[in-house]
Amino acid sequence: MINLTQLKKLSIVFALLFSCLMTIAQSPKTVVTLKQLTDSIGRLVQQRQIPGLMVGITTKDSVIYAGRFGFADVAKKLPVKPLTLFRMGSITKSLISVAVLKLVEQGKMSLHDTLSKVAPEVPFVNDWEATNPIRVVDLLEQTSGFDDFKLNKMYSLDHKAYSTKEMMLQQKSSMVTRWRPGERYTYCNVNYVILGYLISKVTGQEYDQYLTKQVLRPLAMMHSNFNLWSAQPAVDAKEYRFSDGEFQEVPSVALLPGPSGALWSNADDMMKFVRLLLNNGYPLLSAASISRFESAKNSLAARAGLKSGYALGNEDFGRFRGHDGMLGTFRSSYRYDRQTGVGFVIATNAGGIGKIEDLIANYLLKDRPLQQVEVQPLNMKEMEGYLGYYQAQDPRFKLLAFVDRLMFIKIEKDSAHLYMNILGKRYPLQQTAPGMFSQPGANQPTVAFTKNQDGLRVLLINKHYCEKVSGFVAIPERVVLLMALILALISVLTGLIAIARYTLKQLNNNQLILSALPMLSVLGLIGGSLCFSEVMNNSYLLYQFNSLTLRSMAITLGFTSSCILAIFNLFFLLKRYSCIMNRFFRFYLFALALSLILLNIPLAMYGWIGLCTWTL
Fold first, then answer.
1. CB atoms within 10 A of CB 581
2. How far is CA 376 from CA 122, 381, 433, 436, 459, in A?
3. Segment among 341-350, 404-413, 566-575 with least mean pLDDT
4. How far apart are the first and last CA of the chain?
5. pLDDT in tens, 456-486
6. Which pTM was predicted?
7. Confidence of residue 368 (pLDDT cuts 50, 70, 90)
């Protein structure tokens, strides 16, 4: 349910590139028969260390295939059964959107209602409320501008039930807009917690009760539920991580923002939901509502003409639509295509599902050739002002915004072509309409150029937002930052050498301190980063951030000590500067001291220094 792959290491820096390439036709080996497909899935389950998997493939009228692989409980050797429930995570957002559209059809809500009008008790802050108020559609299309959940507001080991209003209020600290609502898409679970509260307020029922009565039961999804934790151990799949050559069970965490990802379901039930969409909303919604469900209209990217963005709890995946889910170690997705009338759902209790998605998608579309978008001659005069450098400006997490903004794209040209240059690799762009472009092989435009409300030139890649920046500033910034990082890493080696020389009585105390302080500062930074990365790579561990634990304390001490030691090192060096006889070593130590200060400046600006995750 939380798309934390964007957080892992530096992969967030490349997220825009991957999203741009997403709509390009994939070319894994296409299977022809259903037997080949299921055999291939079985092999992938083994190769990718997936303990248990459910698969459902359906037309708008009937099931093509419902299959299960592996174990729901590895220790007891209990296989995945038809009634085994998997956590569907953020797929819940699609059901929330269907419920909102149902209320809209009944006249109980409007997509254009402002949040301040329908729920003034929601404690949000919007500096642009007078000109750009937050509306229901901003929540649905993820364009509110809110920060995503705070690290301590996602999971807990305490199995405590909360009302919909209590779950909404828990996310108060994230409800501050960072830019104009309606301008930029950024994935935010908090938006859907607020929507869950709006459903509850309008209907007088808890959000899960309303969704059960008005969405699940009419679709005969009789086994699905919205439990915040594994409340039915007899049918719920257990969660695992693969480590040291074996599957290890991990805790089943309680989800705090329930409306953003609480759904548990199985293949049979989820195929019924997919058939709702394949049948143009019947029997719950009108065809017009399903069309709106699939249409991104609110962001600057959508207004610029791109149709490849996030709609109402529903996303474009090239030739399919659907949503992904991630919660604990569960991974899930559903996809459907109303033109061909087919769709599928998959879920695992550990391990990635991307290759399996590709297999099924290519099997279903094997007889449907890709319709490539029509291109037109490049209008170079129109694009002249958009040449140059762009920087990502749509961070999902405020805490990690400085990492997002390392994303650096250059738009350049040759005599007759336009290119997107990322890390030295050129990607050709083909013009499809004024200001709109696709990549070769794509079935729709994925890149657009426009101006925002302030008149700044903007590059939109799929649904992501980048602003034009001066290359004279941006390039030196990154070069200096890279050099500072290299010097910081070298300091670990020189510090170890200094300690060795000190033990051999070749250095005095002051000489040791001059080399040891930078090393200790860098080690604090590395230690804090490793502890944080461990949680991000195993997102179920986020529960450790909502209390004082060894890991949360290590993050606080690591980043804070790094900053304190960097400052102390600079003062100590300036005090002893004239005593350093070797001019090269003196210059090296001064450059290193400045580098450590430089590396800590963005950490201080974005809240990492003194970060106490349990108080966010």
1. 7
2. 48, 14, 7, 10, 19
3. 404-413
4. 21
5. 999 999 889 999 999 999 899 999 999 999 9
6. 0.93
7. confident
Tens-place pLDDT, residues 313-325: 999 998 999 999 9
Q: Do 591 and 573 form a contact (C-beta atoms < 8 A)?
A: no
Q: What is the pLDDT of residues 488-539, one digit of tens each?
A: 999 999 999 999 999 999 999 999 999 999 999 999 999 999 999 999 889 9
Region of 324 (left: φ > 0; alpha: ψ -120 to 50; beta: rest) is beta
Helix or strand run (H / E) with residue 569? helix 550-576
Q: Which amino acid is at 590?
A: F
Answer whether 52's CB lies under 8 Å from 349's CB: yes
**C-alpha span between 244 and 229 (Å, rounded):** 27
- Sign for the CA dihedral angle at 445, 451, 452, 457 comes to positive
Compute φ and ψ for 508, nearest 5 degrees.
-90, 180
Given a cut of 50, whether residue 303 has pLDDT beyond it is yes
Q: What is the DSSP string of 279-325?
A: TTTTTTS-HHHHHHHT---SSHHHHTT--SSB-SS-EE-SS-EEEEE
Dig out the tokens for 185 from the structure.
Answer: 């898409």
Residues 6+ apart with CB under 8 A from 315: 309, 321, 322, 323, 324
CA dihedral angle for residue 410, residue 416, residue 417, residue 418, rounded to 10 degrees: 40
In angstroms, the CA 350 to CA 330 distance is: 5
Please provide residue 481's backbone torsions phi and psi, each rounded to the nearest 5 degrees: -65, -40
Mapped onto helix, strand or coil, the DSSP state of residue 96 is helix
Cα–Cα dist 27/49, whole Å: 23
pLDDT, averaged across the chain? 92
Chain centroid to CA 54: 23
Rounded Cα distance between 125 and 91, Å, is 28
Residues 596/568, Cβ–Cβ less than 8 Å: no
d(CA 337, CA 561) in angstroms, rounded, equals 53
Nearest to 155 by CA among 516, 427, 545, 610: 545
Name residues whose C-beta falls within 8 Å of residue 606's C-beta, 6 or more positions apart in sequence.
398, 399, 400, 401, 402
Going by C-alpha positions, the residue among 38, 30, 79, 35 that lies closest to residue 55 is 38
586, two tokens:
């003196």
pLDDT band at 122 (very low <50, low <70, confident <90, very high): very high
